[in-house]
Each structure stands twice: as C-alpha cells, then as structure tokens.
Amino acid sequence: MKNCDLSTIITALGGRQALQDLLGVGPSAVSNYLARGTLPQRALGPVCEAVRARGYHIDPASLEIIGHQDAGAGAGRGMREGMRGGMRGGMRGGMLRRVLLIVGGGIAAYKALEVARRLQDHDITVTGVMTGGAQQFITPLSLSALTGEKAYTDLFSLTDEAEMGHIRLARETDLVLVVPATANLMARAAHGLADDLATTILLATTAPVMIAPAMNQAMWGHPATQENLARLRARGILTIGPDDGGMACGEEGTGRLSDPQEIVAAVLDQLGRGDGALSGRHALVTSGPTVEPIDPVRFIANRSSGKQGHAIAAALARQGARVTLVSGPVTLPPPPAVDLVEVETARQMLAACEAALPADIAVCAAAVADWHVADAGASKMKKQEGAPPPALALTENPDILKTLSTHADRPRLVVGFAAETESLYENAAAKLARKGCDWIVANQVAGDEGDTVFGSDSNAAMLLTGNESENWPRMPKAEIADRLASRIGAHFT
Questions:
Q1: What is the full DSSP assignment across 136-149?
Q2: What are 401-405's contacts with CB under 8 Å, separation 24+?
C-alpha cells in the first residue's frame, strides 16, 4: 500500500487504541505502521469502513481523508489541518490531551521515559521538562526523542523565555505530571519556591497537578516529607504511590516509584474526569474495617478487606468525581486519582469524614466496629496463671452513617451499606429508615454453604432507594462499584 497520512487516519478513528482494536494488533504494530507511513493491505477495507462510520469521506486508493459528510466538498484541506492542529494542541472532546511531564532528579527518572511512551499509546501529547538533577540520570535528547517534542530544561532560556516560556508551558496543558517527585522537589513545591523551570511551572499552572513520589524509605517516612505531602494534598495535588518494595539503594520499604502502567492509568482517569457524569462533584467514601485497641498489642476488628469500598472510590473517580477515600487498615493500594486518608478506629474515621465535608456524595462502605473497649490498656494485659480472663467493658462507637445523614453539612446523597446474615430486605429496609440515609446497598455476607463475601472478589447486592429495590446478581466487586457509580451519576444528571 502506498504511503498515507496515517496520523490523520488514527485521529479520525479516535486514537491508536481504536486502530489496534480494529485490526487486532498491539501498540508496537501501530508504531511500525507510523514509522513506515503505510498500513498492511488487509487493513484497507476495515479502515475505510470505520472512517466512513465516523462521518468522514475517504479516498480508498490513497487513504486520504477528503472531508466530512456534513461539510462542503471544499472542506477537506481545512479539516485535515484542523485534525493535525488538534493532535498538536491536545483539544478536548475526543481530540488528544496534553500532559506536561516534569522529570525529577532521582534514580527512578529512567521510568519517566516509559511513562512518556505509554501515554502516547493513548494518543496523549507529552511535553517534557527536566530538572538539573534529572539530567544526571537521563538526557534531554532521550526524552525529546520519545515525545517528539522539545525537552525543556532552562528557566532562563533566551529563546523560550522571550515568549514567557514557563507561563506558556504551565498553561497550555491538561495535566502536569511529576515523575519521579523527589523529596527535594516536593519540599520546594510545598513551600512555593520557584527557583528552576519545574518549580516555576508548578507555581504558575492552573491545570491539575499529579505527582508520583519516589525516594529512600527513611526519607519518605521523615516527618518533614510527610508534612510537605500534607501541604501538597491540601492544595488539591494528586498523588500516586509510592509503593513498597526493594529500592536501588538496597533497602526495603515504602518509597518505590509506582509502576509506570499504574501512573498512566491514574493519568487516564484524571483526564477523563472532566467529561464524567459526576464532574465537579465531591464524593466521600469509607472503606475497610476499623480496628479498636484492647491494649497496645491486641485489638477488636472484623473481616472486611476494603475491596468493595476501594472499587467504589475508583468507579466514582472514573465518573468524574473528586474522591476522598477514608479507609481503615487494608492491604490494598490506593485507587488512582483518589485522595486517601488512612485511619484505624471508628472515632478517627468519623473525624476524617467530618473534616472532608462538604461533599455532594457520601458512600459509607466501611465495616465500622459497633463498639470499642471503654478503658483500653496503656500497657499489655498480662495473663495470670489460674486467673480468669479480664473482663472487657465495651462502649458504643459513633454511628458514622447516621451522623453524616443528619449533619449540618449533609451530603445531597448518602448511601449506606448493610452486611446481613439473614432477612436481607427486612433488615436493610429497617436500617434505611433508622439511619436517615437515602440509599442502602445490602449484601448477604454468609452464603448457604458457609462461604463469605469478606475478602472475596465478587458480591451480590440489593439496592434500596426509598420504597424501591433492585437485586443485583453475584458479580465482581468492580462491576458492583461501576453499577452503583452509574446510578449515582444518573441521580445527579
């Protein structure tokens, strides 16, 4: 097949992924097609048919898109130029988005190259900015070669700054992504310093900012870093990771850069938020168990894994909501593009929920302990030979669902969960009336054969909305979450 303007074809189809799906090939195959400027002969028919289905006129001999079906015959050139402009400009509404990738000066800087490449697989235009430290690990040429754009390094460039380059870079983007965000870069950003191109952009941008921290585990755990992290999160900066594991220094712990695929997934979620049904809404989600201490060693808890609550938080974020996830102790990674607040006790969970208000939506999926030990020991209780076990005096925990349902800053929609072992509908309906919430998601936590939904990847549920109920068959918890998020989105549209 003769050479064609494959970039325009890909844009008309809706992106690289659309071409991959159409032809049943992977990203590397599409990259090869682009490098050669040709498609295989077998692709001619499917591509022409798909392009026409999207409303364009195409010459099957040359694969040249010559106009749009609702445009005049002379619109072909203008349309092609507009499409190419869209590919460079990251326009919304189906065109490409732009990400400004700031590469920090850590050993994980080399992974920023993979992030840049993977983002382009999703038709995202990437422009690179490198700190001085980043250039000690990778070169501007490497980043520029992968992105196809100039890699910016100098705040005082005579050519770039003649046009106020740092302001242009800060504003002409849909998202600023920092990979890796070192302890030093986080500290400077937290305190509003603007002493290089990267920190100046972070101070000047009006776009969402997402950071992927990476550093030694001791540096990550240091109070100064955690204080800086809290400052950044309070300003709305989103975080991805860090993860646990081995590091380049040979130590183990929390501080490892999140996997590039996870970073890309978080970016995709964030870029899709502005188009979702819950765009501009704030959702509060509780998840996991609460842990109530008996003494410094022992505690009362339950079997909740947090899988359902975390899945709901991720689903609401995909619907466009800004999500605050208040979670008890779980072993799950935080969902992408979600603000995580970690707690242990029911009282801590309530305080975190009230601090997150106002919110439009509250989904109380956590399995909150009903009671805590009245006088938890300050030291370990010792077993006395021949003596009976100590008596534990229990006192009632605060009712988080009821508190949010009657709060002065009550969310417009409050959704509770009911974990039942019998009389599912009756118990759930009674809880709905007693708590004062709007909806209840009820599930039978113990099956006929003694199996339990706690810790499993699937669930069956009943949704009660006032006097109406829906039975949802057993399905993956992620699908339960998507179904609930869709219902919530429909409620607000």
A1: GTS-HHHHHHHHSS
A2: 401/364, 401/435, 401/437, 402/434, 402/435, 402/436, 402/437, 403/350, 403/353, 403/354, 404/284, 404/353, 404/362, 404/364, 404/437, 405/435, 405/436, 405/437
The string over 373-406, giving b where at least 16 C-beta atoms fall within 10 Å of a residue's C-beta and e elsewhere, is beebeeeeeeeeeeeeeeeeeeeebebbbbbbbe
Dihedral class, residue 87 (left if φ above 0, else alpha if ψ from -120 to 50, else beta): alpha
- Rounded to 5°, the CA angle 98-103-105 comes to 175
Burial of 259 (0-12, 13-18, 19+ CB in 10 A): middle
| Average pLDDT of span 332-353 | 90
CA distance 16 to 26: 10
Distances (CA, A) of 382 to 295, 296, 374, 391: 10, 12, 18, 13
d(CA 181, CA 193): 15
The amino acid that residue 267 corresponds to is V
Is 363 in contact with 312 (CB distance < 8 Å)? yes
107 contacts 132 by C-beta, under 8 angstroms:
no
Determine the pLDDT at residue 493: 80
Tell me the three state secondary structure of residue 47.
helix
- Residue 355 vs residue 270, higher pLDDT: 355
For 412-446, how does the pLDDT look when each residue is reduced to its tens digit (9 = 90+)? 999 999 887 778 888 889 999 999 999 999 987 65
Q: Each residue of 138-183: pLDDT tens digit?
A: 999 999 888 888 899 988 764 554 444 567 788 778 899 999 999 9
What residue ranges define each of the domains in the chain, with the CATH number in brackets?
Answer: 6-89 (no CATH), 97-272 (3.40.50.1950), 278-491 (3.40.50.10300)
Tokens 């009362």 locate to: 300
Residues 8 and 15: their CA atoms lie apart, in Å, by: 10
Contacts of 164 (CB under 8 A, 6+ apart): none
pLDDT classification of 273: cutoffs 50, 70, 90: low
Using CA atoms of 182, 272, 480, 455 in order, give the dihedral in degrees to the nearest 10: -10
Cα 134 from Cα 110, distance rounded (Å)? 9
Active site residues: 249
**CA neighbor of 472 nearest in space, from 430, 440, 431:** 440
Q: What value does the CA radius of gyration of the chain take, rounded to a whole number of Å?
A: 26
